[in-house]
Amino acid sequence: PSPDPETYTDLNLDSFYRGSEQTATFRSSWTNSDALYVAVKAGDNQSSHSHLDIGSFVLDALGERFVSDLGSDAYDLNRYFHWDTRINYYRCNSFSHNVVTIDGANQDLYATASLSDFVTSADGGSVKVTMTEAYAASATAATRDVVMSDSRNTVTITDQITATASCNMKWG
Length: 172
Fold this sequence. Notes:
The protein has one helix at residues 83-86; strands spanning 14-17, 23-27, 37-41, 43-44, 57-61, 64-67, 100-102, 112-121, 124-130, 139-149, 154-163, 169-171. β8 (112-121) and β9 (124-130) form a beta hairpin. The protein has a 5-stranded antiparallel sheet with strand order 1-2-3-5-6, with no helix packed on it. A 5-stranded antiparallel sheet has the order 4-8-9-10-11, with no helix packed on it. The two termini are 34 Å apart. By secondary structure, the chain is an all-beta fold.
């Protein structure tokens, strides 16, 4: 249904959530169905129901979801809540998410990540995801910056990874 614009006058366009699945969201409007929206997560790869997807994000624009997350899986799959099996399910591992993989490896199963440098203003906002633990086997530093800018008309995702050796990086 079409929302009453008065309902949304006091809501922030940007939000920062500090739970086990730290998340930041940015939007250009609450009432325009063509609004630009981006959300990114940090979190803990070991938390309940989690996937190996530190740094994953979703992006909506012009009434469409352009960058998606597959969401939850069927919990009745064989040994789904046993990590030695669960990471082999495509929907749970790094390959099904929009994160970097290095030399064809999943993110570290025990990694945690945090959000920092959250900024919000009338023209946009930004946040940094520190993902170093997720790539500790092959990198000394890893961050993802999510920036909404240009009067909330542009989203830029920037990954900075310092690899320990020559490697093959892929972003899916």
